[in-house]
Design goal:
By secondary structure, this protein is of the alpha+beta class. It has helices at residues 6-27, 35-44, 60-68, 70-76, 87-93, 134-155, 162-173, 175-189, 235-243, and strands at 2-3, 32-33, 55-59, 80-83, 100-104, 107-111, 121-129, 196-198, 211-212, 219-224, 227-232, 261-265. Strands 2, 3, 4, 5, 7, 8 and 9 form a seven-stranded mixed beta sheet that branches. It has a three-stranded antiparallel beta sheet with strand order 1-12-6, with no helix packed on it. A two-stranded antiparallel ribbon has the order 10-11. The longest helix has 22 residues, at 6-27. The protein is globular and about 50 Å long.
């Protein structure tokens, strides 16, 4: 196996994004670059220089169509694999995430502090309705936050005392349950029609990072590494909700890469 350089990691992730874009065009699915990837496209026309992951988001209806295409997607190209669409396969492969990932099968990631496995990937998040009754949504959000936290604790490998190690192992035993509960709540929220949407399943702040629901009705394209990809047309508003003044660079001491894994070519 050959260890990838930082540039090779970004090249590999970019190739996955190109394939994802091709899939969405072929099946008429809407998506938008999301989070740091959208910020990178809008501000740098590339990755944020100190970032090395790719996120995309999809309206819930399109996301579910991709879920239902799972087996078909995996037959289209032997270099890529969709994860997260099958409970049976998820359990077999110990895939604990309540959202989709598209992976390059010709790579393997060796994680520094997690029990994850697999190759280079991009994350695919659903954007679904938020109940108009804030109290109802807060109940959902707090449960999601709890399961999210438990999945993280169970997936982490730390040099700790024996009591904490045993505690993490016990938490890890419930990973499939936490994931399935989050997927169930996601599906319930997917039937909600309101004037607000959110990444309810994995956002850092589910309660406050809310977007107007019509933001996913119109799209444009932004350049990212010399190729144009879809984004919500009101990407300025979208990014402002996520980051505030997104055009301003953070202080130099915060421009630090956080490499969670080493990537190898098979």
């Amino acid at each position: 196996m050959k260890k990838c350089t930082d540039k090779e990691i970004k090249d590999t992730l970019f190739d996955i994004l190109v394939y994802f874009d091709k899939l969405c065009n072929e099946y008429n699915l809407n998506y938008t670059l999301d989070s740091g990837t959208l910020l990178g496209a809008a501000r740098h026309k590339d990755f944020i220089p100190w970032d090395d992951d790719i996120d995309v988001a999809m309206p819930y209806e399109d996301y579910k169509k991709l879920v239902n295409l799972g087996d078909e997607v995996n037959r289209l190209n032997n270099n890529f694999r969709l994860h997260g669409y099958s409970k049976k396969i998820n359990n077999k492969e110990h895939y604990i995430y309540p959202f989709l990932k598209l992976e390059n099968k010709n790579t393997i990631a060796k994680f520094h502090a997690a029990k994850d496995s697999g190759g280079a990937w991009i994350d695919i998040f659903p954007l679904n309705g938020v109940p108009n009754d804030k109290n109802i949504y807060i109940k959902y959000a707090k449960k999601m936050e709890l399961y999210h936290s438990l999945l993280g604790k169970g997936d982490t490998i730390n040099q700790e005392n024996i009591v904490k190690k045993v505690g993490r192992k016990i938490i890890r035993l419930g990973s499939n349950y936490y994931r399935d509960r989050m997927v169930k709540m996601l599906d319930e929220l997917g039937t909600v029609h309101s004037n607000k949407i959110a990444d309810t399943v994995w956002a850092n702040d589910r309660i406050n990072t809310l977007f107007p629901s019509d933001i996913i009705n119109n799209y444009t394209k932004l350049e990212f590494r010399g190729k144009k990809f879809y984004t919500v047309k009101e990407y300025d508003k979208y990014l402002t909700i996520q980051y505030g003044n997104w055009r301003k660079l953070p202080p130099k001491e915060q421009r630090v890469a956080h490499h969670e894994y080493d990537l190898y070519m098979l």
